[in-house]
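Blinded run. Sample ID left blank on purpose so nobody reads anything into the name before looking at the predicted structure. Input follows.
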Amino acid sequence: MHIGLIGGIGVAATVVYYQRLSAAMAARGKPMELTIVHADVQELIRNNLADERDAQAQVYAGLIDRLKAAGADCAAITSLGGHFCYDETVPLSSLSLVSAVKPLDAYFASQGFGTVGLLGTRVVMQTKLYGQLGQTRAVAFEDEIEVLGQTYQDMAVAGVCSNQDRALFLDAGRRMVDDLNADAVVLAGTDLNLAFDGRDPGYKVVDALDVHVDMLARLASDEMTLEEAGADR
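Blinded prediction complete.
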């Protein structure tokens, strides 16, 4: 299956999607059909902060049309924060959409997580992953959402993580485990690999990007159908 990705939101996350999806297909010994279109992260941020869901959905629809023209069989948004207008995008999309949020609930349950701590954009933390977790309780530091959300946004736009910002995220994760009884900390922002990759924070970390990539790899290798993946159309 030919996978289409809406990338650029941000660039670092797109690179990791490409790297990990390529590695997953290479491990299977299968070729990969992939097309990536570049979205404007600043436009996404403006629409996200203003809750302009319909406007961003129209932007996505145009990008998805380009993916379809390139031969893609499905599309995915490479940003959990970018899913804020997912429901508005589905009826406009010319391709089936493979959500990065939907698979997480089942994954957390399969791992036996009763509570997970969230790090990501303001909206992801405020809405507890858009209210789509039914089997696992999600927690976040309500009085720190603004600081953590802004720091995440700045890091995603820059494509790099400073030592100061890394320490902020690692500490927030530790306190979610210690103070909020989280069984694991979820990197619910696809650019958080910039802060966490190659480091052992001393607590369980789940990169939501990996759950999405695993599903996309199974689709790309025809191990799963779009219906089985719960793709929306």
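Unblinding after everyone has recorded impressions. The longest helix spans residues 11-28.
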